[in-house]
Amino acid sequence: MNHTVQLAHRYLDLMERVLLGVIYEDPPIDQWSGGVFNPALRARGRDWPGKAHTMIGFERLRNLRELMSHVISDGIPGDFVETGVWRGGACIYMRAVLKVFGIVDRTIWVADSFAGLPAPDPARYPFQDQGDLHHTFKELSVSLEAVQENFLKYDLLDGQVKFLKGWFKDTLPAAPIDRIAILRLDGDMYSSTMDALLALGHKVAPGGFIIVDDFGAVEGCRRAVADYRRARGIDAAIHDIDGIGAFWRVPGPNAVCRANGLTDQDRSRPEVHHSEQPG
């Protein structure tokens, strides 16, 4: 790895620590962490930070960097989309990856209601989200302006970042996105996950990836993925990231995934390496 590439990865490693709030030991605001910063919980994405810009932990951030590296190296066409962004941290991180490697022909799409999660919709999904309480958590509601301000704090708000404001069922079907290299779903609920998959799943290019942040944590989300894949005959292996997040690769040339990761050729690529481990 040459010096310039090493510096790029050091920058991205630092971005991870800042986005996760581990440098300043940002205390959590969830109801199960006792209001005290716990580095192990934060590293694993198991708490809700009070001020940090993402809650997805090191492994899911690093998975995102690795998968971006693969689609860029393989020349897989398309933009990068996240549905459900909270404070914008994962999208900020994706924009940082494009910036540091000088990629100017791809867009980061930031899709969210910017008003929290929707209440269950029995008219559209009669039982799938029954009893879901995500819409009652005010901590999950972050305004568009606040997310844009977070991008600005990193000097990463520019024309390669586009926002889609509104419920997914209203905004995603007509979104002007032609091709997707990575689709990252973080909608928690059955409805939010299914709406995103129905609107955008078919736009993911062969060799691209679909990441599901809540796959191991929320039954409704996991059921939506299973129903979507079953209806479309998708049998690509689902790979665990950290016990919560998971992903699969859309079949295509040179896009084979193995049980514990990517191909041996993928593993040998220096651009996916990290310069340090979290402390």
Provide a descriptive summary of the structure in words.
34% of the residues lie in helices and 14% in strands. Residues 258-279 have low confidence and may be disordered. It has helices at residues 3-20, 39-43, 57-73, 89-100, 144-153, 168-171, 190-200, 219-231, 264-267; strands at residues 79-83, 108-112, 161-165, 180-185, 204-212, 239-240, 246-249, 257-258, 261-262. The strands form two sheets. A seven-stranded mixed β-sheet has the order 3-2-1-4-5-7-6, sandwiched between helices. A two-stranded antiparallel ribbon has the order 8-9. The longest helix has 18 residues, at 3-20. Helix 1 runs antiparallel to helix 4 (89-100). The protein contains nine helices and nine strands. The chain has one domain: 3-Layer(aba) Sandwich (Rossmann fold). With 279 residues, it is α/β, with parallel strands linked by helices. Helix 4 (89-100) links the parallel strand 1 and strand 2 (108-112).
Give a brief rundown of this model.
This protein has helices spanning 3-20, 39-43, 57-73, 89-100, 144-153, 168-171, 190-200, 219-231, 264-267; strands at residues 79-83, 108-112, 161-165, 180-185, 204-212, 239-240, 246-249, 257-258, 261-262.
